[in-house]
Amino acid sequence: MGVWSAFVTCCVWAILLVALFGDSLASASEFDPYKVLGVSRHASQAEIKKVYKRLAREWHPDKNKSPGAEDMFIKITKSYEILSNEERRANFDRFGQMDENQNFARAPQGFRHYQDSFYFDESFFHFHRTSRDFTDSKHLLHYNHYMNEVLPDSFKRPYLIKITSEWCFTCIHIEPIWKDTVLELEPLGVGIGVVDIGYERQLANHLGAHRTPSILGLINGKVTFFHYAVVREHLRQFVESLLPQKLVEKVTDSSYLEFLNSWHEENKPRVLMFDVASNIPLLYKLNAFAYKDYVRFGYVDMGLTETSEVVQRFNINTYAPTMLLFKENTDKPADVIQARGMKKQIIDEFVSNNRFLLVPRLVNQKLFDELCPVKQFHRRRKYCVLLVTGEGEQFVSVNEAFFDFASSNTKEVLRFAYVYQRQQQPLCDTLLKKDDTSPPQVILLERRSATGRVLYRTLTGGWNGSDDDKHRLHEQLELLQRDSSYLTHDAMLPELNNEFASMFLIQWMNTAYDYLAQFYFDLLYSNWREMMPVLSLIFSALFILFGTVIIQAFSDAGEDKPAKQKATDSPKTEQSSPGQESTSSRPPKKNFVEVTELTDITYMSNLVRLKPGHINVVLILTDASKQVLLRKFAKEVYSFSGSQTLHYSFLNVDKHSQWMDSLMESAPDARPSDSLDEEEEEEDSTSSKSDYTGHVLALNGHKKYFCIFRPVFTGEEAECSRWSDEEPKASRSRSGSRRKATTLEIHHKLDRLGLWMERLMEGTLPRHYVPAWPGLDTITPQK
């Protein structure tokens, strides 16, 4: 009996489990994106995209009015989202279809179904939730779509983008407000986008959005976050705040003439919008932003008494919004539209068809490319009739005659324009050099390539604006339309100068102001996660700056101490050595350069492997003369220590006695050749070695040459006279064994070193080349 009761209990539980979870399990296994799109599991991305576009057009709710069209369109969109993403497609092929928000890589198959069916099953909690709202599905953004289409389009219209995710329950509360806002702003021309942070993490990181829900605006490639309460009016004001200031100028009776007559300076048509509203409608601002590069917009509030004159002047019906478009003729509008329900499509068509003046001035390359496009097909030929003229009063009548002729033109194949020779000198020189003519001239041209190649011909007889000139121009235009070979000259045009480039500084200042304002705005609302990179950069720069200042301060303090010690030691030196009185002018602080010793350790780096163009200036000395010569040497070369290519060393011949002899043997032309040197050689023939004390070498290790400085004793006469007074019996002539030089005599050996250094810097010293530098491996043992 107990076994039977246990069996019945198990059956009841099984029935309950099937009843609870059967629907969700069945529904999970029914959806197959491959079947929905009708493609195989091995279909390529191009094939999937092609099928998706065809099915999306077929089942779009706006075209297909059948009851199940919307649900089918959602399934098609959902299937394309899965199969167009390689990672999600691989997860589906591996694990099968599940809920969209399920992380395929974290849970095994069995546990995943248990988690989905029990904890998050919508039917179990009686929580109705569709896979994704149709409005959001239509505006979903992917990274490539955003970078290739949305971002460039943001320079023509602002975008309002919502950051959401599948299981963002807070997003549900703002959904009705978001729908109403989209229905209101999208028809006005505002771009709408939705980013699912669960599927488009790369795009979310690029936008700087790290939490849901978030709403941001995009305009001119710049992202701005919405920080206020999500209310329909706040979102509308946020979009309006994204637009540049003074995009539409308010016009009254006192300013409308100035507004209309300024077309010549800006080279743009004028649009006057008449409506009864104190604030400029957002629809007008959005259209003004879309065509800001072509048309200048003004707004007239017909409800004000200050606008009655302009309303009466153009006979405006005050019961319906009206738009007047003016070109060169400011007395009569070139086009008019009037409608009670002004729509974006009507305004777009109205402005787009009139975005150029009748005869615009070519002020930049972009305008030239649009006005005179490159020939693509025979039926789409566009011939440009270009007047090369000047800005002076003598050209006024000529220009007006050309404008009159262009205003009577009704053929779409002809485009009229003019340039000022002073503003576009390279272009005019290219077009006028073959005929050797000067302005004013009319040139007929056709562009053949985007690189600048054109076919052109100058109007025969020139252009003075007379009736004969107009008749001749009309005949030649007729010939050109019948036979394109009428254009006989070929040229490569340079890129046009941007005549409005002088406004770059103002644009840069405005951009800098916008970024500073955005920085303050983000800081005010404590958007710390987005501000952390900027703050980190600022604090890093400050740390490096203050760290450098502190290190420099400590290094200066360390250098002061040795200088003070030298100053206190100098009196003792003068008292102990009376012979140093002539050198009592001790150099001030930092008046010496660093001189390193040339040894077998530093020989390779300081000479053999010296960088190209660098020279090592080497002083030859002995142990006895080391202190005196180093002090004098450093003082003489101090003025040249600023050079980055000069290095200073000394060589002790008491340690390396053979090196100088080897160097002189390698370069025989470096030996002295005058009579004095010959006498010295004969006198020194009995000595065992030559005396190189006080010699200075400029060694170029890379090119293997050296320049040599031989000491000249300028204080010899005074020295000899003093010795003759003190030691009258001493002979002034040199004996077989050389007399030891005194401290004063050694000091004066380098008197003319400064002049020699100047010649070294000028490159006028003789150069002695050697096949290879002698080795410096051994140290001569001292006796």
UniProtKB/TrEMBL annotation:
This is J domain-containing protein. PANTHER family: DNAJ HOMOLOG SUBFAMILY C MEMBER 16. Residues 32-96 form the J domain. It comes from the Eukaryota. The chain crosses the membrane at residues 533-554. Residues 561-591, 665-692 are annotated as: Disordered. Keywords: Glycoprotein, Membrane, Signal, Transmembrane, Transmembrane helix. Residues 561-572 have a biased composition (Basic and acidic residues). Gene3D superfamilies: DnaJ domain, Glutaredoxin. Residues 675-685 have a biased composition (Acidic residues). It comes from Cirrhinus molitorella (mud carp). Residues 1-28 form the signal peptide. Residues 573-586 have a biased composition (Polar residues).
